[in-house]
Every structure is written in C-alpha cells, then in structure tokens.
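sanity check this chain:
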Amino acid sequence: MPLYRLEPAIEYIGDEDWTASTHKAIVYVKATSEKKARETAHRKFWIGASRKTNGEVPINPWKNPEMVLCREVGQGDEVSLPQGSVLLKKDQPN
C-alpha cells in the first residue's frame, strides 16, 4: 500500500483552522490514495474548536491541499521513517 507524507505548509501554520486539529506536524499515512490519506489524517486529528476571530467555524486543514502538502514517498514497509514519526493506516480506528 502506498505511503504518503503530509506536511503542514509553513505559510499556513498560523491559520486559525489549525485549532481544529490535535496534530500540527508531519505525518505519514498508509492509504490507497492521496484522498484517503488526507481523510485519515482529518479524522484522526479532528477536534471541535472555538470560532475564529471572524466568527467562522474552523475547518480541520488536513484535506486542504493549500494548507497541507502531500506526496507519495513509497510503498508502505519499504520506507524507513525518521525516528519519532507519526504513522497512520487508512483503516486505523480513531
């Protein structure tokens, strides 16, 4: 199964939408597609958050390609991850 590396884009890390996520750093996700990898991170890290200063509800950014960069880095177990990396699997329960 492909392995994806999702990384918050530096220019958006201060965005108030990040208040709707419990994780704000690089994550690796085993999934069948980029879309599934993003959905997995979104589900795993979603939390309810207070409204933004403009009154809008924050939207967890893991599905947003502008706010989170995503690229395939190989096939599952073939990739050696940096020590301390967060690894999620598509079918991993919340």
About this structure: The chain has one domain: 2-89. Residues 34-45 form the longest helix (12 residues). The chain has a mean pLDDT of 90. Helices lie at 34-45.
